Structure of SPFH/Band 7/PHB domain protein:
Amino acid sequence: MEDLIATLVGGNLVILLLALFIILCIFLAIRIVPQSEQHVVERFGRLKSVLGPGINFIVPFLDRVAHKVSILERQLPTASQDAITLDNVLLVVETSVFYRVLEPEKTVYRIRDVDAAIATTVAGIVRAEIGKMELDEVQSNRASLITRIKESVEGAVNDWGIEVTRAEILDVGLDQATRDAMLQQLNAERERRAAVTRAEGQKRAVELAADAELYAARQQAEARRVEADAEAYATGVVAEAIARGGLEAVQYNIALEQVKAIAQVAKGQGSQTIIVPADAVDAFGKAFQMLKGRG
């Protein structure tokens, strides 16, 4: 009886141990990788594969997850480095770099400290690029400078399985002497622009005055021309009247104008003197005779 019990217990124990072993193998074989990570698998110390997000399977006891690498975008701490421009101006440049890991197998086996390596690379490239430019170019063409720095960093870290997503120059600092010199230059430039603006304003004023005088002269000439045309027309009309009506018509017009002139003088206020032409009586008589003759 005891032998039977021992046999049963021994057989169940073997089955139980076998079941536990199978469960352990399944547990070790299944690897669930988060969406933001990739896992590097080694077999006997050598690279076997890279597990992507989701459920993955490995060989228990032979394979192991050696590295868990985040594929999220990372930002390096803001770094400051000195740089000298082409015109020998010392600058303090603050930079910031964003990157993410694309190929974890390259990152973990080719570089130990990724952040330090990228920071050192960026510092060297910034110094080299700024050394090719003068201070004014650095200040005015910052966007193109950032583009060149980003391209250079991408080429340098490509073998590490890293993508540089963005590079920024946060600030470009100057020493006090350079700042004072730039302020003087800026003030001089502003004064030059103000002088040019004043000169252009004076020039424009002279041009406008000349245009106004020319316009006035043209208008006066036009007025004289109109008066001359009117006088010529009147002379023509008189000549035509003389040709048609003879001398009497001319004398009648002269006498009529004299009468109008005397009447206009008589309308003046406060005048005690009356101006009468010496031949006024003859003029009136001639006018009445002409009117009578016409009637």
Notes: The radius of gyration is 55 Å. The mean pLDDT is 82.
